[in-house]
Amino acid sequence: MKQTQDEQDETQTLEAIVEQFTAEIRAGRTPDVQQFVQQNPTHADELPDLLSSVAMIEGLKNYSPNSSVPDQRFTEIDVPDFLGEYRIVREIGRGGMGIVFEAVHETLGRRVAIKVMTAGLISNTKHLERFHREAVSAASLHHTNIASVFGAGEDNGLHFYVMEFIDGQSLNQILQGETFGSDETINFQPSPGSTTTLFSDETKPDRSRDQLIIGDQTVPAKNRYKWVADTGQQIADALSYAHEKNILHRDIKPANLVMDSHGTVWLTDFGLAKNIVDEALTKTGDIIGTPQYMAPESFSGEYDCRSETYCLGLTLYEMATLQPAFENSSPGRVIKAVTTSSPLAPKKVDARLPRDLATIIEKAIAREPQSRYQTAAEMRDDLRAFIEDRPIAARKMSAWDNVVRFSRRNPLAAGLAAFSVLTLALLVVTMTIGFVVTRSALNRAESNVDIALEAFDQTFQQYITQGDSEFEGSDAYGFAQIGGIEKAITKEDAQFVEKMLGYYQRLAIDNKFSRDVKTQAATANRLVANVYRLIGQPDQSLTSYQEALSAFEALATMPSRPMDSLDAVQLAVATRNEMASLLTSTGQWQQGLQLFFVSKEQLENHPNFDDAALKLKWVQTINQITSGHVKVIFGARSASAQSNDLTNDSGFDLNAPLQEGKLPKASLETMLSQITQLGRAAVREVDLLKRATPDEHRVRVTRAESYCNLALHESREGNAESNATLQVAIDELKALKEFSPTNPQYQYLLALTQAIAAQNQEQSAALISLTASQASVADLTKRFPKMLAYRQLYGSVSTELGGLHVQLENIPAARVILGLAGEILLQLRSDMPQDWSARVNGLKLVQHLEMLAGQQAANGEVDDAIEIGIQTNRLVEGLDLQDWDLESQ
Amino acid sequence: MELPAQKQIIADLKSDREEALAKYFSQIRGRLEKIVKFRLDYRLNGRISQSDILQEAYVRAAQRLDGYLKKPEMPFFVWIRLETQQHILDIYRKHFEAEKRDVRKEISFNRPQHNNAGQTSMALAAHLVAEMTSVSQLIEKSHQIEMLQDSLNTMSELDREVIALRHFEELSNIETAEVLGIETSAASKRYLRALKRLKEILQENLSS
pTM above 0.90? Predict the structure, then answer.
């Protein structure tokens, strides 16, 4: 190309100006573009563009005026033959922070690794101070998986520190040995005609490769997962130990994990370790790390032990899938990827990855720190559980969680979610079921089912845990929990639930999937049963209980991992007990009792009966048996006193033919004294449990119940211990209530203790106790109108209180309260036609009313006596008491 | 340290052979380190020491000294740079040799080549990130770096290479012209045009 002389001159001038500008920047100055333009007005058009381009490129090269010599970090270190007393043997490797040498202590002959820090890193006293602090803190760590730090030193201006020498390969080397030398290509030159951009088209490693080579051993894929988990639990244990000492490693990545020839993995290079409490040196902007292995929050200067478990998670991800969670591409892209996206689900990268391990990894690398393992110890425990084939604590990231997450990130969706969480959940379920159903001819992916199940599950969790975290983590599908939800289930909710049920039952019936799905399907049936029970359909409820129960029973006996079986046994017992309590509450109480005894025996005969969880279930089962008769005591005592049929020598026979609606043809006293003995045994066991875990909430509630029920039975027997026993329950409940003042369960149990206390008190004290109890339980039924247990207690306490007023001849109060009791019982009867407690209490109520009518007649208030008589008749009719009355007379 | 004139260097190399080569090599060592650092694939960073590479590049140059002296058209620095780059290529080949189908072209001794320009962008990213010691700095600049990368990617290979040579290898215009095998004025023109083009692309990217 021919250029004119003018053009040539022009180019030369511009070139000279640009060169000068560049030279200024490289000399560490910040030349002003405007000034350059002013000095060369003839080129005012072009110079701004040219110079700002130069300024940008050179600026990015980190020639900041503050760092006088920008390249120091990578300048070679001329390492002498000796550093202090250590003779340098060879260079082992190098990284951003310095070069590591193998060295030998001259007099001791000890082989060590010495890390010489690159000069630029310790350019000021602040860095030097930090360097020494790090060495001191790291030297305090003594753990089988942490390469010991022996100390720090300085020789000839070189700062170094001395570590235990680990003869092995870093995980980075092991993993790279995997990816390098195979098909990861370097786009060394663009293929002819290629117009692809160079950054985005990273070649994907071939995943068909199965083997890792560690030293001279080859790890095949199927063993790799255990190896990954084992390596992970070793490091998690090391981290847990360091975190307890308030020391963070700050740079967990494959390059800092060294595998020795014994398969022990070592956490090396606590070179970046900084004391958590050392705030002075921990300022944003001084965080050093490797972007590819950094937690998202560290980019905003936040870093804690959950960031370390995240980094460990990333490392395990890479070990398990043989692919880094985030591709090592340009820094901008890495940071963008780390801070705005989540890695591909590990199971999508490697389909053979065991689900539990995938779950552990996914939990560890959750974007939000609060969703991760909160401590390294938790992560370690789960990894160990995986290795030992025990169930892990981490929950699979659910579709629902993803919906929530998605909503959090997308304001529009968040608004929608807040507007109607239920609608959204229903949508997810409907869509998923639709998907599953349309593909029914094909093999249905379990994951589809999972999504539906979990969306359903989470919707209930929303209800169940609403406003009260106390319920979280306990038996979330239990009837008590569902019935005790803060938000009363309205007609609309019931419709919604029934709609969901349809889908859910379809899944439960249709899918013959793996154990997990079977468990979920059984759980679904249990949930369905509880919801039916809640909306007053006991027959459907029983059917679903039966289905859930047989499924859990099958799972419990299915050959499987022992912990799974243990879980299944507990679920079977919980379901059977719920079924039993439904039977008991609907009058089939002998059947119910029988079922409770089946649960009791199932637990006692289980090989793992010593397990705390099974013991607790056992105590809870006994509590059900003892409390199941709270109603018997309140309602049937007086009735039984008049019954001829009840005195029978045969004793209580569980196998006797059942007669619905009839009091048992057995010795009530014998049965009750058996039950009292059981109550004593339960108290003994639960005391042992409390001693083992004094703060365990479930144990404490169960204990309060046990004592409460025992006190009731003792009181009935006229045992003087009763008050002391009751006091234990009251103390436990008051302590619990202080912790969670609005918890309905505590309030219920406290109201119950007051009612029991009244049994042993003289009339005036009993009046106070029963009045308080009645007020408290009235509040509960207002808050939880559907909760059967509360309404039953409300009915019986009101009956008792009314009866007491009759005895005290407080006629107006007696009339009001007995009237109220009648309404409660009639309502119970109409909502739950088979509710037996309403009729038992009704018998008592009728007696009280008859006595009241007698009093009024004696007082000459004949009209009123007649009115009470009419009221009584209506009650007898409404509660269908004629038969009962006749039979028990 | 400035090198003496090309004629002087050639004369010294002819008479003192390796002794002269070592002397002049050490004079340009600092500049070569920059180039090695820039050109060395980021995946090899930390696995191979830079001094080893320079050592081997020196050995390579010594072996080829006769060839160079027969036809010393290329300035000494440019020649050594080429040998160094060639050596880096050999290292890649060794490390990534499983990639058989990519039979990389032997870089012709005489033919100025810029067909590893693809590598330039990659090197640039790695280079920039390696320079940064703190994350806050990285975040602050990552966006710009990404923009620069994107912009460079949309430029022609030659433009991209010119910028790499001038700003990352820190070659002078004359050296750049030698490496690219074009006239100095053409190199200069290309460089200025590339800068201008870069600014335009950056602005386009900014506004989009």
Answer: no
